[in-house]
Design a protein that fits this description.
about 375 residues, alpha/beta, Isopropylmalate Dehydrogenase, 2 domains, 10-stranded mixed sheet, two-stranded antiparallel sheet, 14 helices, 12 strands, about 40% helix, about 20% strand, binds 3-isopropylmalic acid, binds magnesium ion
Amino acid sequence: MKEKKILVLPGDGIGQEVTQWGVAVLKKIGQEGGYHFTFDEGLIGHASILAHGNALPDETLAKAKASSAILLGAVGHPSYDMDPSLAVRPEMGLLKIRKELGLYANLRPIKLFDELVHASSIKEEVLRGADILFFRELTGDVYFGEPRERRENGTVALDTMIYAKYEVERIAHKAYQAAMNRRKKVTSVDKANVLESSRLWREVVKEVALSYPEVETEHIFIDAAAMKLIKAPRDFDVVVTGNLFGDILTDEASQIAGSMGMLASASVGDKYGLYEPIHGAAHDISGKGVANPLATILSVGLMLDISFGLQAEAQAVISAVEQVLKQGYRTRDIAESTTDPAHLLGTDAMGEQVLKNIHSYAIKS
Ligand code: IPM
Ligand code: MG
């Protein structure tokens, strides 16, 4: 395999603490499997605003375009949450990199590790066996639609919810292709009883579905989907939905996996791949060494699988995480009252445990 250049964008808050464990896991996989992974770093988010006055410098974007894959920590800073009127915001870096790299498909696998069934606030009998793969459209919708502005002396505001047929088509194809390798069911989520953009969404998904006759398709409205997700999470296999609905539904779905600290994501298009934990900057715990690195480590698993085509290595990463959980190790966010205090680990100790469980036999088999 030729050199794989990984651009690391730690970003803000706990981003630095967790991405270093993603890198450590990649280095270990590289050693065990004899792959040539190289690493570079860049600025994004608040860290970049402090240094350059904007959330995504051209230098970072150029490095991203020259990379084989990108590992991102998190962006965001509490001072901006308090003042939504600020024109330059850390999140703009994330939105810009998604758009510039054409990362239109955001994959968010929601997998409940058996060991964490009690970490969720949802009942065990409802949860057990839940395994959902979200395809959230990531470069369109009301997130990017124009016009977006204030009118009438600032007393009226508008955003534009808009989808073009090709945008729906390409994400729908990705969702159906994934479903073919899973339980062959796609749930498309929209608000077609009210919104014109959703009526187009549904029409196009129906058309795409014709190319995948083996896959069962279900169309449901976003409000019903939100309800069903916690009522009967096992009914879902692959879910495909727009940017805004997907943003909201995947935060809700994170509770199925016990903690946001467990959820990985991949943002891909036709060329680039960006991998990040979905938990965000979590400034309340940053610098304390208690953040859960598992979501980042699992994101590296997705990178190995999707960007590098290394399925056995990806599986070795997932198995290592599973093993560590079986051994009873927990970070604070996934601990229970019954967790043995000796098994309660900080970020670095948890990262070390995962490294110990990545075995070369798992990679070569
Ligand atoms: C996410 C986040 C982002 C989004 C924010 C930080 C802009 O919530 O990745 O889900 O809304 O897409
Ligand atoms: Mg979100």
